[in-house]
Amino acid sequence: MSWDARNFVLDVIAGSCGGAGQIIVGHPFDTIKVKLQMSASDHAAVSVFRQVVKSEGLPGLFRGIGPPLATVSVLNAVLFSANGYLRGMARKISNLPDNAPLTTSMYAACGAGSGLFMAAVACPTELVNADYRYNLKDMFPTQGSTSTRKRPILPSLIGPLYVINYQTNELYGSIIRNRGILGMYKGLSPTLLREVPGGLAYFTCYEVLKKSLTNVGQAPSQATLLVSGGIAGVVYWGSTYPFDIIKTRIQTDSDIAPRYRSTADCARAIYKESGLRGFFRGASPALIRAFPANAACFFLYETVSGYLSKSFPAQARAA
After folding, report:
1. Which of 111, 174, 202, 250 makes the best surface tag, with the fewest CB within 10 Å?
2. C-alpha closest to that of 245 among 218, 272, 227, 267
3. pTM (predicted TM-score)
């Protein structure tokens, strides 16, 4: 196996493991974030947490975890393998040896480029997940409802397929039936606005912090990986959160009677409704989630990548 192919495979596996840890640690916070984003009033995160636990129990915090956990291998494989590929290209162009450190500007450019690839797979995945979590009560009525539709035994896995393939209610129909395959990319513009600058900030912050916290000639400690990854996650969400608000609004908007005509129109509506504060609704659980979730992600990525690199050594690429 060539050097490039080997590194690609390692990035796919290590990125998948890192992403799985990120999802498991961060999903309860993400559930609260989505509910806050779609709320018409300014509820506190703690209040929403109590409401979810009271009405659905602790499992309610993990509602919808099936889709992101099932697709996490794809999402993180794309993100980390794209970033690794772009770094390899940067080394080739700059005539640097394999695994040589890059300049900060190179890390930034590679991070932004990986965001383009990430947006292509994140948009349809998050569309299904957000629409499912927001509209589950309409798709599967609770006890006492006059609807004859039955709630599935495993809603976290079946629900997203239901969103794609069946009519849910008079406003939220099948995504593909109403909009076609391209309908799966509803919200792509704000997703790009989030992922490209977010990827730049994410990977640049991580590499700069990791370097600054590591003594010259030594490998980064586990604490360094955790702290660098956690802070990188906070920087990512802190710098891109308003675009995530817009993306969620657009993706959960009705296909039949949409409220928003474009990304800009959605931004204007949010500002008119709540001012600048509206662009940060639900930010507290997202930022709280960012540190542990991304600390777990980078720690597992680096740990698995290091283990696989030692287990499957490869000769350096010929100059």
Report:
1. 174
2. 267
3. 0.78
Contact between residue 183 and residue 175 where contact means Cβ atoms under 8 Å apart? yes
Residues 6 or more apart whose Cβ sits within 8 Å of residue 132 = 64, 67, 139, 159, 160, 162, 163
The pLDDT, as a whole number, for residue 155 is 45
Rounded to the nearest 5 percent, the helix, strand and coil shares of the chain are 75, 0, 25
* Predicted local confidence at residue 187, as pLDDT: 92
- Three-state secondary structure call for residue 65: coil
Q: Are 64 and 160 in contact (CB under 8 A)?
A: yes
In degrees and rounded to multiples of 5, residue 148 shows phi and psi of -95, 0
Phi, psi of 98 (to 5 degrees): -60, 140
Q: Identify the weakest region by mean pLDDT among 60-64, 97-101, 238-242, 309-313.
A: 60-64
Percentage with pLDDT > 70 across the chain: 77
Given this model, what pLDDT does residue 167 score?
A: 35
Query: 3-state secondary structure string, 106-126?
Result: HHHHHHHHHHHHHHHHHHHHH
Residue 122 to residue 241: CA distance in whole angstroms: 15
Contacts 24+ apart (CB under 8 A), 97-100: 97/316, 98/3, 98/316, 98/317
In three-state secondary structure terms, 127 is helix
